[in-house]
């Protein structure tokens, strides 16, 4: 059972770290050509220009909710992977539930970061350049389409924000239990900002990551790009298998609203997880072959070292490899559709920290 307690003391630190300019006179907030006056919202597209002989470019739908009162800037990025529908659905309906006249600060909503993947219904990779958008940050203005998308989001969204939530779910092939990634990297004060965001989001499983690079020029991931620039950031996982008939969208939406309350951007008391389950070690298991995967576990299942997670067969049904748990822990996600390519994930096991 998930338990919560009030946030008055826990979020004192995050409150005093609000940007120094938070009390400045309110003016319009502009992202690309999208401009919102104080107390209003505005929607439009960030245009990613075509590259001659390579691609026709793309568009990134963004909504700016600019509060009537001063406060921090929170960026919400959905659709980094286009087949991860739960957060995309959540960010379709979220802006209309926020009253800008009651908002302190500004919310930047990226509805679908990876439009080529979304419209192409592709898992992980862009159908245009074959790249994973969440592996090419901070991007390149002269690079492939995925790199140019990352460059636009870095310059127009991440650089404008004080905090960021990269909203994910189990991709079209992944059965997943909800959890949050907390990147315990960078300056101590940035780590603490990110930790508080993770607790405020409200999911009781929190995966601790300590191996991310914080070089702003080679940040690779969306959330790490924000952290490398001194901003609190987390990555969340709610939903699975490209479905919209689960609680994934509701969890994403509820988590965002709780973060807004914790940052004092909306009225109300924030609730944070009282007894978080910290995952201090995790491992993504990858396929050694291209073939067919048959899962033998479910997300959230407890396993011990050596538990059979699944088997790989060739295309004739001959078993060629067993996938077993590398240590005691819990299955955070498992690939629940048959096709796999060499090097792709098969599942992830997390070790629960004992306190």
What is the topological layout?
Elements: E1 4-6, H1 12-16, E2 29-31, E3 34-36, E4 40-48, E5 58-66, E6 69-78, H2 85-93, E7 104-110, H3 115-120, H4 145-156, E8 163-168, E9 174-176, E10 179-183, H5 188-201, E11 205-209, H6 222-228, E12 232-237, H7 248-262, E13 271-273, E14 277-286, E15 291-295, E16 302-303, E17 308-313, E18 319-324, E19 329-335, E20 339-340, E21 345-352
Helix pairs in contact: 2-7
Please provide a written account of the structure.
This protein has 355 residues and is α+β, with helices and mostly antiparallel strands. The chain is built from 7 helices and 21 strands. The strands form 4 sheets. Strands 4, 5, 6, 7, 8, 9, 10, 11, 12, 14, 16, 19 and 21 form a 13-stranded mixed beta sheet that branches. A 4-stranded antiparallel beta sheet has the order 18-17-15-20, with no helix packed on it. A two-stranded antiparallel sheet has the order 1-13. The longest helix has 15 residues, at 248-262. The radius of gyration is 20 Å and the shape is globular. The two termini are 18 Å apart. The model is unreliable at 1-24 (pLDDT under 50).
* Highest CATH level, the class of the largest domain: Alpha Beta
Helix content: 10-25%
CATH-derived architecture of the largest domain = 3-Layer(aba) Sandwich
Number of helices: 7
Count the domains. 2
- Characterize the main sheet: 13 strands, mixed
Label the structural class: alpha+beta
Binned strand content? 25-35%
